[in-house]
Specification:
Elements: E1 2-11, E2 17-24, E3 28-31, E4 38-41, E5 44-48, H1 53-58, E6 63-64, E7 66-79, E8 86-97, H2 98-115
Antiparallel strand pairs: 1-2, 1-6, 2-5, 3-4, 7-8
């Protein structure tokens, strides 16, 4: 389950404005590789829309079935907001509707059965 937490106005390469929905996933506990302690976090991603600003803002707080998944991409530099450190990442996060998530799980299950 994901929640629409904000909307952002962006411009295309041609200068045409469009609205982006900011999505946030559920609470996750992640163990630090540095000190071994757990911390709470949630994945976030952005998804483009065809909505006007007013309509997009009305969706803030709406929940949608699906999940935010880590996806490989071309490497890019990212500036860590708290420290200013620049790191190179090779992944991003995308929203996957529940139908896509279930189909992916089903395909993995079939693959395991076939390889057994």
């Amino acid at each position: 389950m994901v929640t629409v937490i904000a909307v952002h106005k962006r411009c295309s390469k041609e200068g045409k404005p469009f609205m982006v929905l900011e999505l946030q996933g559920t609470l996750e506990l992640v163990q630090s590789s540095v000190n071994g302690k757990f911390y709470a976090t949630s994945k976030r991603c952005f998804i483009t829309s065809t909505f006007s600003e007013e309509v997009a803002e009305a969706f803030i707080g709406n929940k949608m079935e699906g999940e935010i998944c880590r996806v490989a991409c071309d490497p890019y530099d990212f500036k860590v907001p708290n420290t200013g450190e620049i790191i190179r990442l090779n992944y991003t996060y995308d929203f996957r509707p529940v139908e896509v998530v279930e189909k992916k799980r089903e395909n993995r299950s079939q693959s395991v059965i076939m390889n057994s």
